[in-house]
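USER: Write out one fold?

ASSISTANT:
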Amino acid sequence: MLLLCVFIPRFGRKPVVFGSTIILSVFSAAMAFAPSWPVFTLLYFVVGLGQITSFIVAFILVGGPRVLFSCLFLPVFYVAGEMLLPGTAYLVRNWRHLSLVMAVPGLACIPLWLIPESPRWLASRGRLQEAELVLRAAALENRVDAPTFTVSLSFMDLLRTKNVRFTTLILFSNTVSYFGLSFNLSHLYGNPFLNYFLLSAVELPGYVASWLAARSLPRRLQFIMFALLGALALLLILITMDTVTLTLVLLGKFGVLGAAGGMYNYTGELYPTGIRNTAMSSCAMFARLGSAVSPYLLLLAAVDPVVPWVVVGSLCLLSVVLCILLPETFRKPMPDSVQQMGHIQRSV
């Protein structure tokens, strides 16, 4: 994510997106030929670097309600891949062959190179004629007036905003909760393949519910509603029997995903255009620390199997408190400058 803050402003969205896709496919295939565990770990780390741009792409050439649609429905394809993974792993039991199969979907992204570059990035690099052509084509297609250009801001401008602290902590909590629920799969009763499929499938209604709520509910209310649902379900595991644990975990993940889906869209609405990509990349970078911490939740299960669920539920409650401190952006124009962002904060 830190590299995104540098590469996207310098090289543009398209090269970074397709470079990440190439890394994802090539190194996934290379894992099949790893001669040792250290080499496999290194290759798997590089594969993780390739999976870092999904939510940034949603803000390239879309605006208004289309940002909402793109940001919340983009993960649907991620979930579809998760749902296909256990079935594929069940049929392809050899992990080397499975690594080769996982490299194939990247080929489907080749036709997407026809998508034009971000006009705002083109303008920031002085390529005004190319930016104007892209804007005219987009305005003609959507029957609207072409937007004006804004000045690109730096990472230091981002550090001057207090919202980044709250959104970073919220996304960190959401990430720990999400991966903590996924990694703690081994402590659930039942078939592990079926459990993984169910934990992946529940993300679909989670994102759909988040999208439907975002169309009519204020951003803070939407996040608090889903986060409280997830926290309550996970904390109830303390007083229930093992036979209903899976149901509560599925309900908890539904709440966590509903909250996380809305938070990424909320984050994009909080920051001005010139710094939006940097803000989302920076917040997501620190949120990924949560994915690094979450495997250690499994160690808490040695104390008591319910402790990981309690920790995840408590983090959901913490994110609710932090969300209250953020300004509301529902049905307000997305800011194009730091001054407009400050106006949104004062109007709350």
Remarks:
- The mean pLDDT is 76.
- The two ends are 30 Å apart (CA to CA).
- Residues 65-91 form the longest helix (27 residues).
